[in-house]
Amino acid sequence: xxxxxxxxxxxxxxxxxxxxxxxxxxxxxxxxxxxxxxxxxxxxxxxxxxxxxxxxxxxxxxxxxxxxxxxxxxxxxxxxxxxxxxxxxxxxxxxxxxxxxxxxxxxxxxxxxxxxxxxxxxxxxxxxxxxxxxxxxxxxxxxxxxxxxxxxxxxxxxxxxxxxxxxxxxxxxxxxxxxxxxxxxxxxxxxxxxxxxxxxxxxxxxxxxxxxxxxxxxxxxxxxxxxxxxxxxxxxxxxxxxxxxxxxxxxxxxxxxxxxxxxxxxxxxxxxxxxxxxxxxxxxxxxxxxxxxxxxxxxxxxxxxxxxxxxxxxxxxxxxxxxxxxxxxxxxxxxxxxxxxxxxxxxxxxxxxxxxxxxxxxxxxxxxxxxxxxxxxxxxxxxxxxxxxxxxxxxx
Length: 396
Hints:
Strand order of the largest sheet: 1-2
Structural class: mainly alpha
Number of strands: 2
Shape: globular
Order of helices and strands: HHHHHHHHHHHHHEEHHHHHHH
Distance between the termini: 28 Å
Strand content: under 5%
Radius of gyration: 22 Å
Largest sheet: 2 strands, antiparallel
């Protein structure tokens, strides 16, 4: 199938991608999946009406494509997210003195936060960027207006919502904003009085050490969190401690501490074997997640260790049941290992798999840009698909 028309309008691009789905998606199926009226879909495809950003994102999610692919101007994919960052910053600035306004009941706020967590795991960053500023302000209002005995539940929701917002800030390069969100998580978590949530915040805090390249310090912080975490007597406690070991293995790999990396991987693997793969306190953990982190550690250690990532990929692939962000991360790591091993074509294939799984996550990953640029230099003949990919992720 030829490429979609570059200047054919949003409707024609939607029709193109709908026809590219295997098996071909009907207009009715698209309407049902996107929760948009069939008449609206028909009018959009015929160019008889415009489309809001919210509707376009719903259609893009139904078609499993990056929303930017449906825009006629093919502008930078991160524009919508970056445009929303000032509103997010404003919501954080007023965390202790939110403006007056309505607040939904606790159960409705919980539903909204759970949805935001789902967006984070699915790497739907545009939705997070659009919805979280208002949700964070509403949660802050509810928290400060609530009597003392109700604050615990609201503090839990604040921590989870801050974490979803941090996924956008960190992955889109707003590192100061990300650090602020981590500090607000650390501010709210004592009120929640939940040691498992405390462990989850320690897991997220590692981002600040990654950003500062303070890997040895980050490893020490994680090892302190592991010591403070509850003993693994329940499934949730096992997952919390295992996730910290998993994270510690990666940052030990970045610190080139082979012994620590292998020790923490072994601990994570032993704990993962005791439970089923699932999302615990907002973090995916289980045997498959540990395998993905094993590949990440191998890439971080480099040299002779890279072969372990390649061997792992030959014998295993992540299940579609894993969160999209995690699965795409595996193929991004694998592409780097393949590129370092001179496997140019397989590396490009891995990047394309990562893009199919989680377009926004893949496009904003700095390794993807670096690797795409390297692939263009290594390719002896110009490849239209590689050129398009490099332009898509702004590789230079």
